[in-house]
Amino acid sequence: WSIYKMPGVLEVPMTVKVAGQVQPATFTVYAIVTSSDLQFDQTEVDFGDCSIYNSVRSSVCLTNMSILPQDFGFPGVPECIKIRPNDGFGTLLPQETLKFDLIFSPKIAKEHHFQLICKSGINRDFPLLCRAVAFHPPLQLSQSL
């Protein structure tokens, strides 16, 4: 086999000899080497400050760098995060980019630091760092009689 004139293309000449046939069948098999990377448009998401009674939304884009379709998903997402669309699961077509909304809804007032892991169909991990500060609002209203 040899590397074809174009980068990332392999050329493999083949010869098949069939019993009872004088002429062998010759042909060439070509293979294109492609990446299996998925790529976020940012390495970190900062949700900023958020009350424990509110939600904050941030958008990220995920791109399939391959020339083949790739399945992906976000398993083990923390309870304070929702991913839209499709709960963060799907298939990206070749070179396709998909925009996701990450919705942060904290239940505990504290600094949050966590990773969202996007896992590809061939079990590769693509991490996205996230951070936020959740707080109790300074004023709470109550109903009195």
Automatic annotation (TrEMBL):
Signal peptide: none annotated. Coiled coil: none annotated. Residues 40-133 form the CFAP74 fourth Ig-like domain. Gene3D superfamilies: Immunoglobulins. InterPro entries: Ig-CFAP74_4th (IPR056310), Ig-like_fold (IPR013783). PANTHER family: CILIA- AND FLAGELLA-ASSOCIATED PROTEIN 74. This is Chromosome 1 open reading frame 222. It comes from Nothobranchius kuhntae (Beira killifish).
